[in-house]
Design goal:
By secondary structure, this protein is of the alpha/beta class. The chain folds into 2 domains: 248 residues, no CATH class; 135 residues, Nuclear Transport Factor 2, Chain: A (Roll). It contains 13 helices and 11 strands.
C-alpha cells in the first residue's frame, strides 16, 4: 500500500521532552497542512513552489513540524550559522529543507519540532512488523489483515493523490481513515509505542503542548497528509482552538481547479442517478452527498425558468428518492469546462443528459463553485442556471 509505505519511511528519528506549560486561555488559530514529502519534488500540482506560496499566504507565527526535537538544535544551528542542512533524515522532507527553513528566515516565523519518534520506537516497530509477517503465532491475524487491506485498497482515492484540493478535502480524510484502518486494527498493539494510534497520540501530545505555549497566535501544523484526519479529529475537541480552513490559501491552477470541478460535476450527477433509481439508501448520511455541497445561499434556475433556493430544493429532491426505480433512467454529463472567476470562485459549463422511456433529453448548465473546507472535492455549489437544448 503506497500510503502506508510513505508513512513507514518517516520514522527513524528522535524525540526530546517538551516542558509543561499552563493551559491557553485565548482561542488560537490552527491550520493543518498535509504534505507529501519526496513527492513534492515531482508534483506539478503540489510541488515545492506551490507549498511555498501556500505557507506565505497563511503567514503563520509558528509552524509545528514533523521533526523530532532532539535533532532540531543541530539542524537550526547548521542552517543559521552556515546555511547548510546536513541532517541525513531531513532529506526525506524537502518541505523543510527547501521550503520551511528558508521561509522561516524570510518571514521570521518559529519552527517547533513536534514528531514523537525515537530511535527505540523505530527499531522496535521494524522488529515487531517482521515478527508479525513471519511468526506462526500471528497467522490468523495476518490473514485478517490481508483481507482487510485488500478491501481497503480496492477503494480508489477521491482524486489525484498530489492534488492539494483533494488532499485537503473531507473525502480524502475519510478515505485515508479507511485505508489505514487495517494497519491500525491489526498492528497497533503488536507494534507498541510506534503503532499508528500510539504514535499519533505521541505527536498530538507535542502539538497540544506547542499550542498551549502559544495562545492567541496563528499556528500551522505540517505533517504527512496521512496524519491530517487524526489531528483534525483531536483539534476539533479543543475549545481554545479555531481551526482555519486552508482551502482559500491553496494554490489555484487551471489544471487542479478544472479537475476538481469536473470531478464534482460527474460525482454529483452519478449520485442523482442512484438517488432517483433508489439504489442508494434514503438516509441522512447518503443524502449528505447532495445537501453538504450546496452553499447556504445556493439557488438554481431550472430550464423552465423557475428559481428554487437551497432549502426548498433539499425537500423536493429528498422526496424524489426512488421516483425512477425500474425505469432504466440514466443521467450523465458531457462537454464540461471550467474557468476561474477569482481566488475563491469558478464558473463551469456542462451538458446534462437524462434518458427515460421517451428517449434522451439534454440541457446546458452554468454553475458557480466556491471553495469549501468540508466538501468532498473542496468545492460547494453556489448557483446553477439550466436551459433546454434543442431537440
Amino acid at each position: 500500500m503506497i500510503l502506508i509505505g510513505a508513512l513507514l519511511a518517516t520514522t527513524a528519528a528522535f524525540q526530546a521532552p517538551v516542558p509543561e506549560v499552563a493551559p491557553a486561555t485565548t482561542r488560537t488559530e490552527v491550520a493543518v497542512l498535509g504534505t507529501i514529502h519526496g513527492a513534492h519534488r515531482r508534483s506539478e500540482r503540489w510541488g515545492l513552489d506551490e507549498l511555498r506560496a501556500t505557507i506565505r499566504r497563511i503567514a503563520p507565527d509558528a509552524v509545528l513540524t514533523e521533526i523530532p526535537s532532539d535533532r532540531w538544535e543541530r539542524i537550526w544551528k547548521d542552517w543559521t550559522e552556515r546555511g547548510v542542512i546536513e541532517d541525513d533524515r531531513l532529506s526525506v522532507f524537502p518541505e523543510y529543507t527547501d521550503v520551511l527553513l528558508p521561509l522561516s528566515t524570510e518571514m521570521g516565523f518559529e519552527i517547533v519540532p513536534c514528531a514523537a519518534w525515537t530511535r527505540e520506537m523505530a527499531d522496535q516497530r521494524s522488529a515487531r512488523i517482521d515478527a508479525f509477517e513471519s511468526e506462526a503465532a500471528f497467522e490468523e491475524e495476518r490473514l485478517g489483515y490481508a483481507r482487510a487491506s485488500a478491501a481497503a485498497e480496492a477503494e480508489p482515492p477521491p482524486g489525484p493523490d498530489d492534488d492539494p484540493l483533494v488532499i485537503h478535502s473531507t473525502a480524502y480524510d475519510e478515505w485515508t481513515r479507511r485505508q489505514l484502518a487495517p494497519y491500525d486494527e491489526f498492528l497497533n498493539d503488536v507494534i507498541g509505542p510506534g503503532g499508528w494510534t500510539n504514535i499519533n497520540r505521541g505527536h498530538m501530545t507535542l502539538i497540544d503542548r506547542a499550542i498551549d505555549e502559544r495562545p492567541g497566535r496563528r499556528l500551522l501544523v505540517t505533517f504527512g497528509s496521512g496524519h491530517k484526519y487524526w489531528f483534525l479529529d483531536r483539534l476539533r475537541e479543543r475549545d481554545d482552538v479555531e481551526l482555519l480552513d486552508v482551502t482559500p490559501y491553496l494554490p489555484t491552477t487551471e489544471e487542479n481547479v478544472n479537475e476538481a470541478c469536473l470531478r464534482e460535476i460527474g460525482e454529483l450527477h452519478r449520485f442523482f442517478e442512484a438517488w432517483f433509481a433508489g439504489s442508494v439508501p434514503d438516509d441522512d448520511e447518503t443524502y449528505a452527498r447532495f445537501a453538504d455541497v450546496l452553499a447556504p445561499d445556493f439557488e438554481i434556475i431550472g430550464p423552465d425558468g423557475v428559481r428554487t433556493r437551497r432549502d426548498a430544493l433539499l425537500v423536493k429532491l429528498r422526496a424524489a428518492h426512488g421516483s425512477a426505480r425500474g425505469s432504466g433512467m440514466r443521467i450523465w454529463t458531457r462537454n464540461e469546462e471550467s474557468r476561474a472567476f477569482d481566488d475563491r470562485h469558478w464558473i463551469a459549463t456542462y451538458e446534462e443528459w437524462q434518458e427515460r422511456e421517451e428517449g434522451p433529453r439534454g440541457r446546458t448548465s452554468s454553475a458557480v463553485f466556491r471553495r469549501a473546507k468540508d466538501a468532498p472535492n473542496g468545492l460547494e455549489w453556489v448557483h446553477v442556471h439550466e436551459t433546454w437544448l434543442a431537440d
